[in-house]
Amino acid sequence: AVKRTPFIAGNWKMNLDHLQSIAFVQKLAWSLSDAKHDFGAVEVAVFPPFTDLRSVQTLVSADKLALGYGAQDVSRHDAGAYTGEVSGAFLAQLDCRYVIVGHSERRSYHGETDEVVGAKALAAVKHRLVPVICVGETAEDLEEHGPSAVPAAQLEAALSGLKSDAEIVVAYEPVWAIGSGQAATPEQAGQVAAALRGVVARVLGEEAAERTRILYGGSVKAANIAAFMREPDVDGALVGGASLDIEEFSSIVRYQK
Ligand code: PEP
């Protein structure tokens, strides 16, 4: 079987301006440089606001930090009359490796449909960015359809335009678990992650399913990360609130199985 490198991703949301991001990344790098953190063993990336990306790029490249980064959203378009949008080409020029697409906050506050999320995933891949495709059910969905039906349908739609060799990351983020302090149980996260791997297999093929990392997100903390990582289909975490606390985020990165 293919070995998937565990991936811990920090979604800063709309927090930390570019000056704060410089101080934060320096402190995070210092905290992670502890000998106990083996960067080959666990990959780490941060997702700052757009206005921070140039500062983060400068720090990461100057100090050769083993820290990935990416944006929280991307336009489905390459360039043109799309006021307020940011092209994947621009993100790639700033050496972003990743971009989040379809976060539940984009879906619910900005009306992003499965079709839009799929177009954004495609735009990301076109610009050689790895889309971190977020899917997840609301509390009502959970009651009505059970845990995996809605996220599986969202993922199927998001993958529909991609080729089998596309590199993607999937994040299962139950909406009711985001920022609520009420994480899913590791068993539930593991079951949905397995179902989502099945979707990747069906749409992009077995090989893609084997290598694609599937993250859990929703109230992940230092205290619960290890239990999620013990699930065979959970390959990492997308961390919101706790990614803004350097001690907490470093402890998450240093989880012990
Ligand atoms: C998120 O918004 O992606 C998230 C998982 O948030 P939190 O960790 O704060 O629940």
Automatic annotation (TrEMBL):
Residues given in the record as substrate binding sites: 11-13, 179, 219, 240-241
Record InterPro entries: Aldolase_TIM, TIM_sf, TrioseP_Isoase_bac/euk, Triosephosphate_isomerase, Triosephosphate_isomerase_AS
GO biological process: gluconeogenesis; glyceraldehyde-3-phosphate biosynthetic process; glycerol catabolic process; glycolytic process
Organism (species): Agromyces archimandritae
Source superkingdom: Bacteria
Name of the protein in its database record: Triosephosphate isomerase
The encoding gene: tpiA
Record-annotated active site: 103, 173
Description of how the protein assembles with itself and partners: Homodimer.
Chief location category: cytoplasm
One MF term in the entry's GO annotations: triose-phosphate isomerase activity
Subcellular location: Cytoplasm
Catalytic activity: D-glyceraldehyde 3-phosphate = dihydroxyacetone phosphate
Coiled coil segments of this chain: none
Function: Involved in the gluconeogenesis. Catalyzes stereospecifically the conversion of dihydroxyacetone phosphate (DHAP) to D-glyceraldehyde-3-phosphate (G3P).
PROSITE patterns in alphabetical order: TIM_1, TIM_2
GO CC term, one of those recorded: cytosol
Segments crossing the lipid bilayer: none
